[in-house]
Structures are given as C-alpha cells and as structure tokens.
Queue: 2 jobs
Job 1
Amino acid sequence: MVVIGPLRPAAVLAKQAASIDAISGGRLVLGLSIGARHDDYQTLEIDHRARGSVLTEHLVAIREHWEDGKLGPRTIRAAGPVVLVGGSSGEAFARMARYGDGYVHGGGPPRAFAGAAARARAAWVDAGRPGRPQLWGQGYFALGEGAAVPGAAFLRDYYAFTGPFAEKIAASNLTNPRAVVDFVRGYEEAGCDELVLFPTVAAVDELDLLADVLA
Amino acid sequence: VRIVVLGGGPAGLYFSLLAKKAQPAHRITVVERNPSDATYGWGVVFSEEALGALRDADRETFDEITDTFAKWTAIDVRYRGDKVRSRGHAFSAISRKRLLSILQGRCAELGVELSFEREVADLTKLGQADLVVGADGVNSLVRRTSEDVFKPSLDSHRTKFAWFGADLVFNAFTFIFRETEHGLFQVHGYPVDGSTSTFIVECAEPVWRRAGLDRATEQESLAFCQKLFASDLQGHSLLSNRSIWMSFITLRCETWHHGNTVLLGDAAHTAHFTIGSGTKLAMEDAISLAEALERKAGDLEAALTDYEMERQPLVERFQQAALESAAYFEGVSRYASFDPVQFAFNLLTRSGRITHLELQRRDPDFVGRVDGWFSARARDGGSGDGAQWLVAPPPMFAPFEMKGVTAPNRVVLSPPGEDEAVDGVPGSGNADQLAEAVRAGAGVVLTELVAVSPDGRITPGSAGLWREEHGQAWAGILEQVRTVGQAILALQLGHAGRRGSTRPRRQGIDRPLREEGWPLMSASAIPYAPTGRVPKEMDRADMDHVKERFVRSARMAALAGFDLLELNFAHGYLPASFISPLSNRRTDAFGGGLDNRMRFPLEILDAVRAIWPEDRPLAVSLSVSDWVRGGLELDEGVSAARLVKDRGCDLVQVQGGQSTLGASPVYGRMFLATSSDRVRNEAGVPTLVGGNVTTRDEINTLLAAGRADLCVLSVLDRPAGP
C-alpha cells in the first residue's frame, strides 16, 4: 500500500504515478515512506542511513515534476495525486506535515493509530500548514473457516525480518467479526479518514465475509 | 507444566500463586537467593485503581493485604514553612515484609515450592522447565543471559536517594522540601503500618556531594537526615534497612519474552519511585501473565505474546509519567519562588496523570483555592492564598496584563493564513480568519508571520507590512475585527530569510520557487532545503538594511493599531538563522558562541524596542531548541530567553525545531511545555506556549502549575478544498 520512496529515482516515481493517475481518472493516492527492510536498500546499493533525507528530496522533486507537467501525462489535479507520507519518528511526522497531504499509519491497534494521528495533527499545526492532514490506517484480517492459522502464518513469514515483533503482528490479525467491528470503530473514533483492510489468505470470499461484517 | 520462577519478590510470588491456583497440576518452583524474611526498603504504596485488579485475581490475598493496609486520602506539601493539603486521593500502603509474608503463605498453601537462599549464577543449572519466569529484579540474570534478544536500555537518573523508615506515622502522603546551604533536599513519606512510615530522602547529585554524603557511611547519612528533618520527625527516629544512597535506574526492554523465558516486573521495566508504582506494575504483570497462560493453554508462544502485548503499552505510559515526575524532582529548585499553593498544584500535576480537572473531581476545595489564588494574582498582583475568592474562574479565564494592555483571557489563537495576499497586501482571507478567532473567544489573536520586506516573504502570497498601503489595509482589518469582540490583536513580524521564496503552502511548505523566485539571505550561505536556493551570507550593510526594515514595519504596526508586537526569532527564519549553530557558521562577531549568535537578533530587538510605544508590550517568538544533534540545546535556549528579557522583551513565545529539515521533534501532548516551564521559571520571563495544546484542561493545568502564562490552542483548519 505504501511505496518505499528512496528505492526509485524521483523522476521515475513521478512519471509512473502520473501515468496511473491518468489512466485511473485521478483515483491514485500515493503513499510514500522509507520502509522497514534493510535488505531492500542493500540489494539496490542505496545508502540506508540517508533514507530520510532522500525521501525528503523525492517529495519535493515529485511534486515539482507534476506541477511542471513535462514528465509523463498531465495529472488530473494540477498539484498531482494526493500524497500520503508514513513513518513514526519525529522527523517523519515533520516531513509529512511539510510535504504530504496526509499521514499513512503502518498498522496496529486503534490506540496506536490514535497516538500517531494526534502526532500527525500536532506536526501539521506546528508547521503552520493551512488545511488538515488526511489520516489513513491499515489492518489485516482472515475471516473464513480455518483461515486464522494460515493467515497468522502468512504474517509471521512476511514480517519475519522484524524478529520477535512478527509474533505480535500475527496475533493482531482480525479473525472474527467482533474483532473487525471493534477495530473499525476504534479507528473511526480516532479520526481515521480511510481504513484499508488486507486479507491475509488468498481467497476471494474473504471480501464477501468482510462486507457482511461491515454491512 | 513445569515452571521455574527466578526471584521471590512480589512479582514472582504473586504470579506463582495465581498460576498454581488456576492449574493445580502445574509444578511451580520459586528460587530466591535471600532468606525468606529479608527485604530492602520499607513500604509499598497502592492507589485505588490498582486494587480492583488484585481483588479479582485472588480474593484471599486481597483480603489479607487490605486488612493490614495503612490508608489515607491526603497529600501534604510542606514547603517554606507552609503546609498545603490536598484531599481526595485514595492511597493504601503495606510494609514490604508483610506483603511478602502474605504472598509466601498463600504460595505454600497452594503448593508452590519455595526455595530460599539459593543463588543461581547460570540458568542452565536450573534443570528442565517448560517455562522460566525472570522475576529477579532490575539486575535480572534471566534478562542478562539473553540481552541480545531483550535489548534492554538502562538510564541512570541524576538525583540521589536513600530509602529510610521512620518510627512515626504520617497521616498523608507527605512531601517535605528543605533548603540547606548545600541545596534543596526533599522527602517522600507515607505510612506503611500502625507504627512506621517510609521516609525517602532525595536530592540532586551535586547537593549530595556538597553535603559530603558521597563519603558518609550508612549511619552518618542517617544521622545527617535525622538532624535535617528533626522538626518533621518531632522527636521520632529514622530507621535504616540497607538504606544506602542510590541513583534510580529506568529500565526498558524491547521484548519481554524469548523462547520459554519471560520477564516480569522490575526485570522487564522500572518506573521512577516518585510515582510509586513499581510493585503495582509488577503484580499487574503477574496477573496478566497468569491469565494469558490460562487463555492460551498449550501454546506458550501465543500466551507470552499476549502477555507482552497487553502489558507493554500500559507500562510504557507509566514510565512516561514516571519520567515526567522524576524530571520534576530533578529540577524542583527552579520553583523556589512559587507561592505554596501554586508550588503544591505544580507538584501534584507533575507527571501529567493528574490534571486541573482530575484534581477538581478529587478535591474541589483545593482547586477553588488554586483558582482563587490565580485570579487574585492576575487581577491585582495579590499574593494572598486566594481564600477570599470564593467564585473564581478557572485559570484560562483569568485576565493577563502586560504593560498597559490586558488580555481578557489566557487563550491565544493564531490562524495560519491562506497565502492570498497580493504584493503583500493582506486580503479578506486574513480579515476573516482573525475575526473568526476573536469570535471564537480568544484573549489574544496572533497573525501569521507578516513580512518586513518583499524578500522577507515566505511565499508570493504572504502578507506584509512594508508600504503605507499595507499599514492602511491592516488598520482596516483591525477596525473590522474589533467590532466582533474584545481581544488583544498581535502582529507577528518577521523575515523569512532562507525559508523564503517558496511555493504556496496548501500543497506543502519549504518547496522552493524556481525562475519566479527571489534571492535569499541568511546568517551563512547554507540552503534550507537540499534543492533550495543558496542564500547570500549577510554582510553589515544587509544587516543594517533588515534592521531598518523591522523598525519601519514596527512603526507602521503601531500606527495601524496593533496592541502587541511579536518579533519572530524562531523556526529557522532570518533572525533565527543567526541563533542556531547549524545555520550560523560565521567567524565574525555574529558567529561562534551564543552571545555572538544573538548579537544581530538583539540589535533588531533593541532598535524596535526604541520606537515601539512604551505602553504596549513587545514579545519575541524564540526557538529554544533545535531538536537535532549539534544544534541549539535547551540550556542555551534558556540563556537566549534571558538575553531577550534583559533587553526589554515582555513575553517569550516558546518554540522549538524547524531550524533545519533534520529536526526530530517529539510531537506528544503539550510538547513545548517543558521548554516553556524552563524559560519561564529559569529565565524569569512570562511565556506563551503552544505545541499540541488541545484541551481546556491542558491549558488550565499549564497555567495553574506556573509552566506558562498564555497558551496557544492548537486547532486544525476546516477541511482542505479539492
């Protein structure tokens, strides 16, 4: 859901995003962050220590490309697609308030989102930025019969690089209707504008089950 | 299931008895290196909230514990010969010895195997176990054995304390402050049973050295404290129980479990003793772990993950409050000039958990007295105790007087502007925003940064005040706004410096203009953003020119009718670029040490002060910390505040960060409050502070505690347009 900004040249990212924006009729929302995986940076031989400042430069350059309109198709909005910025450090929140249209949270219980949302708002006001930040959250679910175990296994595997933290992510998978409803309500109360829920097993009926729960 | 618990303190014993009670088939052994009746310190304290969980977990021990409880509801603050009492706080305490003996008894009754005086140096010698519980305290062997997984961090605090007992019974949680020739000493005292009290003596490390306590024996230290607090002890004696001077260590761990081992209580985390929660947290850990093992029976990893996920966030919140509390006691000497009632309110609200509103609930009389004292002082500078003010408004509605100007209340609103000005002329957007802020009830309404010159603008749409036409436009706006309501109307005057020449702020700030931009200047030739224009390093002529611009604009501001003028020396704009060592690399008289870096901003202040009407206040918005390594630190920021105060600044708006792109602010609640507290009470100048202040309760608490004089309420704009 979130692109690791520093792994691509800014111009490439700007052009790709402008293209998707054009073919989707302006429906693209671009999330950018520094990611949590060391090995991504190693593989591409990109300096991991400079990831924050590279993302900052990218955020400026991408928007300039869109506004100038010389690279790729014209974006639907003159200012380009909505840009969300992620991260949890003070520097990341400041970067979001400086260059983003909003904040995208990395996941966790509603209480964690509420804390991050408060920091995002605080950073926005501190920057003296007019308007308000959009706030996006995300979560994982597995509602089908017998889906809980493979769902947790998938998360454990996907987040293995976080070490012991993977267990906590696996344990927070939403595996029953009650958990989904509480989660959604908690995010709503914390002021979440858009919440993205990802199925953790590859089954289309997960979407129907989710729709039923939220109906 | 075979469980070995290392450590026979409250955490280990309580967990063992709960786990055994839930599953009598478990084989549980507690291994403790000390004899069964050995303990350090005197009593442990529980608040009301902590007790419900103990009752639900095990009624038998709860009844026994509460039977022997010392209970009280008051907190006394003894300070400068006065005693201020606040009621309505439900506390209970028990002696550590008694608590351990109750828990040991219950363990034995349930069939937990207790093994005392058994020293373990190597976990592999413990024998086979399905679960190893590390309840072995802050020096935990279990934790040290797998440090690479638990990833502990240990921070030592800067005060020294000794945990004495006393053979008298306090009838309140008692804080005593005693000034000596060596510095300030304080006592944290509370009853533990019918005949003794805990009596913790604490002081700053330098004070402790000056008093010679670094060389004193246990007996000499006891004699020293006994003499120092003789009047409070009223003929009673201090008691020692291995009561040696220590520095508290705050411990955090990234993870609390690993394979079949898990950490509990002080082995996993500590919270500074000044909020008295160590034992409470440890026993709550025990409850949570025992429940998780039941809930996830047969899946140890899931159970330990559950336990950690439940407890870690709660503990972190307590640790945060404990750090606030510890910081209060470390810096308490800065409040030495407070009146006793404010001193007490500040102490009670130190950790952020108790606020004006919460105190109002617990003890309305006390808060009435605080509000009365605050109002009396705000209205006539009175220093009475406020008893005569039966009907006082909360602090946010007390007026604030600066020079001849009085703000009707303490709340400041500062709308961000819309970048709609044309050629610097403020437009209807500015007028509407300011009028709306007055209508909303603010006592002070502060403009966005208004530029002293065209090249001092942030964006092409920034409002300015450099032509007669601008002055007339502002005068018109003020006239219009004054018809809406009463408020102090304040102009924030500044020069963007190297943060100028940027695109409109709706789509982001600090995005440089390209061809259509203008040349920038700053203390040194370092661009603000990596892709931004390089500013010119200012020479003497540039400085004189900018200074003259500030003076001209200030004259126009006075003429236009602004009540208060604020000079912006913050956030990396032009004057601030001199103050931060990150943006000022000059080698002349304007670079180097703080006095040199402050030279040009102070020249501006002096020049403006000279022409700004005597009967109107002059404020400075000052970044007191860069929040980045190698940048301005708060200590220096406080010195900078002292300098502007000495040059006639009446009010400092405390700011931080934004000096560089790399700043890493901690955007918590009221994140500038600590800075404001230090500036106000160390530099001795009234402060205005914002920084994620979002509720009335936060404002009332900050004001009544003497941490600020005016507060900016953080409000987000209406939803952005398409």
Job 2
Amino acid sequence: MIDIGQFKPKTVYVIYIASAPEKIWQTLTDRKLSKQYFHGNSVEIEPRAGEKFIARLPDGRVNVSGKVVEWSPPHRLSTTWTVEWISEMRELPECLVSYDIEPAGDCVRLTLTEAYRWDVPEAMLAGGRMGWPAILSSFKSTLETGKPLIIKMDRRRR
Amino acid sequence: MSKPKFVHVTYIASTPEKVWQALTDSKITAQYWFGYSLQSDWKVGSTFTAKKGEGKPVDHGIILESHLPRRLAYTWSPQYEQFKNERPSRVTFTLAPFRDQVQLTVVHDDFDKGSKVFESINGGWSKALSSLKSWLETGKGLEPSWSENMKKVREAMRA
C-alpha cells in the first residue's frame, strides 16, 4: 500500500452542494452518473481499497487509471491517478485525488484535493486547475437541477 | 515567495447579464451572500457597502472597474477589528460567456504578505459562489452553516 503521507496537496477546490452525502458519494462512483458531469468519462471503480479505478473516455480508451486508496462511504474517497491518454504523462509518478464529503448546514461541502509526492512543475497543474472547476460545477448542477453543464475544455496542455 | 492570491472559477448555467445583476443587486445578494446587501451605483470611483438589514457595514470598498457585463473590480476592506491595520485588497470578477453558460472567475489579490484578511477569505468565497450558482440555477441560495460562522464573526466584533 502506498504511503499517503508522502503526498502534498497542490490543488484544492471546495464547492457546496444542496444534496446529501450519500447522494454525492453515489454520483461520484456510479458509472452512468459520472458520464453526465465528467466530460463524458465513465468512472469504473471497485468498492474497496487496493482495487482498480478507471476513468474511461467516451470512445472507450482509458483516460485515467489508478487504485483505490481509501473507500469510506459517504465521507472520503481517495484514488491514485495516472493520466494514460497523454503518452508524456503516463510515465510520471501517480498523483493522489481525494474527495472529502462533509455536512455543512443544510448542504454538503465537497473538497477535492490533488496531491503529489514529487516536485511537480506548476505548468503540469494547469490541466487540473482548469478541469476541476468545470467538472465540479457540472457535478453540482447535476445534483441540484438534474442538468449537467456541457463545458468544452481545450484538451491541449499548456 | 509570491504574494497571496485567491482564485476561484465556477461555471453557471446563466447569462453574463444575469450573473452581473446577481453580483450587484442588493436584494439579490441578500438571498445568497451570507444575507448581505451590497449597495452601490457601481460606477468607477463610487463606494459600495455590504450590510445586513439596517446593521453596520461589514465591508466596504471603492469600485475600480465596471464593464457591464464582463468585468467588475473593487477594493475590499472588511470592517472587523482584527483587520483594522490592513490596507484594502482587491476583488475582480470576470464573466466569460460560453454557449448557455458563464465562466465566472473571482480573483482576490493585492494583499500584503502575512495578511489576516487573506487567511479569512478562502472559506467564504467558496460558500458565497456555490450559493450564487445555486441561486441562479435553482432560484435558491445555500445556507452552509452560516449560523456557526456568524457566531464567530460576532464574537470577533465584540473582542
């Protein structure tokens, strides 16, 4: 098992959602629901630590692969994360992506943390810093209005 | 070390004009922004105040830029005792339309190193902007633990 203490947070995004922790958990981990808010990617995840995690592109290719590090419904989901579809990124050390779900008043605080155990260049963090606000904005809309946002991203890394 | 800077991006199913209105109409801000009315004529050089009902302003500032409906910037001077020695920081809203949505970027910067205001704002913006998005998309703002926060603020004001 990997030592999560070695990973340092580099990108953190907090969003509040009018929903329940259980619904947020379900939407994060369900193959069909994930397609709605995650740029058409389907999340395929085995429900225990040590098992496989994949985000699959709409055309069937693997976008992201990793392993489940923590599976604690409905509080914390943590997976390692290797971007597979860009060959230069495939060889890089994996990062750790965690979702923390906490009740906050009459809604829920969802905190996304992207953490690294190496000195990742700022330029490489740009993709996530552009992507997470779009994914999580769409995630919130999916839960609150039933309508995900279709947000076109520039797929080239800057 | 670079100077402290807070950036938050959110996407809202709305138009720039509606987002602008929600940022500048005192009756609307009161519905999603911790209950605060933001009042100003929103002309460059004018002042704005943020207050709850007839209470004392908790924040005020000067309008730096006002390009309806794309860009709004103002200085930010929270009126709490613990921040009284700090000079004003700066908040900039950029509204970029995309199809049926708006990409709203909030940059809060121009802080001095070690700013206490900077330490205090991160949580607030996530809440206010999440609530703004809900208000525009569903007609309802959020109430994420306002009461607990307000208790802390009141204690700080009494100190």
